[in-house]
Design brief:
Oligomer: single chain
Strand content: 15-25%
Radius of gyration: 22 Å
Shape: globular
Distance between the termini: 34 Å
Largest sheet: 7 strands, mixed
Bound molecules: nicotinamide-adenine-dinucleotide
Number of helices: 12
Strand order of the largest sheet: 11-10-9-12-13-15-14
Helix content: 25-40%
Amino acid sequence: MKIAILKEMAAGETRCAAIPETVKKFALLGAEVAVERGAGESASIPDAEFEAAGATLGSREEVLGGSDAILCINGPEPAALSGAKDGALLVGALDPLRRREALEDYAAKGLDAFAMEWMPRITRAQSMDILSSQSNLAGYKSVVDGASRYGRAFPMMMTAAGTISPAKVFVMGVGVAGLQAIATAKRLGAQVSATDVRSATKEQIQSLGAKPIFVENVAGIEGEGAGGYATETSAEYQKAQAELVSSHISKQDIVITTALIPGKPAPRLISDAQIATMRPGSVIIDMAADAGGNVEGTVPGEEVVKHEVTIIGASNLARSLPADSSALFARNLYNFLSAFWDKDQGRPVFPEDDEIVTAIRLTHGGKVSNERLKAA
Ligand code: NAD
């Protein structure tokens, strides 16, 4: 089996779908990995390291030629994939709902496409979960970016010239990214509080040594929420949440928002009027910027200043830690393929009735085969 790793083509992408470690592991399974020259450059992986791990380096054409699988971070334009074998696997973050036309073209090209971001949240699939691996790093980076924009220190410091009080950090949305943001802000010495709509997160916030700020008299979402995800809350809850935020936010220095609802625009959590109550020099990092933003006035990928508060529209923060995010993403891909590896055939074999396969396989046998896509 020949696995192709291309240099990512999406604007601003820095990650690579393989690292030398996964190249070696695929070789142990009997596969050959071909890497496009320069594919790892932006993730600090020189071609020589891929070569030393046993990969064959070449041009895009050489790498694609006769390949049985293409591993990627973002789904490439279908026209850029000529040369792969009929029935070749295409595995990566294929953004299925927004790239319907590309999926039709993948199917027409005979590609067997798998969208890693649709991995079900089951124990068996945890090591294949790109959303968790990338959100975790993004949560860390949001705090580091916020700290670098903030004109004051995070920890309390007692100096001969007087005492510096600790920064107050408020995390809104305590999923994978939010939990890591809390942990990182705590390590930097900030006073941390956090909120979510899912009641199970209260204990998680406390276990990290942060203070939970929760709507008490209106019911939010019981426990973990279905599949760990939030749904939209009632108008009554939203009103109570807005009041709670209003009273809390004016005392905060750094606010990190991560709230997402699958299939819906990001919930609006902070209004312009609430921003106006914050101290000049405060910083808001809106990690939901690409999904419409949790904060009024957010611009994805940009920094805007409103009422002397900096609002960072954080966009795909995992890209700003390319060496680590590539390593985790590449291992997620390896863990997925190796879990289905058939030793005799020397390639992965995907049972049609497997929960993971039905969830993430998009195209098969020349057609768009995924039920969720057909229903969308
Ligand atoms: P997410 O990115 O979909 O959302 C981020 C957070 O925003 C969630 O905690 C959500 O409850 C919260 N949120 C939504 N609306 C909100 C609102 N109006 N106000 C405040 N907060 C709001 O979530 P995620 O990071 O992908 O993960 C959510 C959960 O799933 C976590 O508990 C995580 O541990 C779990 N998870 C489990 C697995 C697995 O078992 N394989 C894998 C990944 C994640």
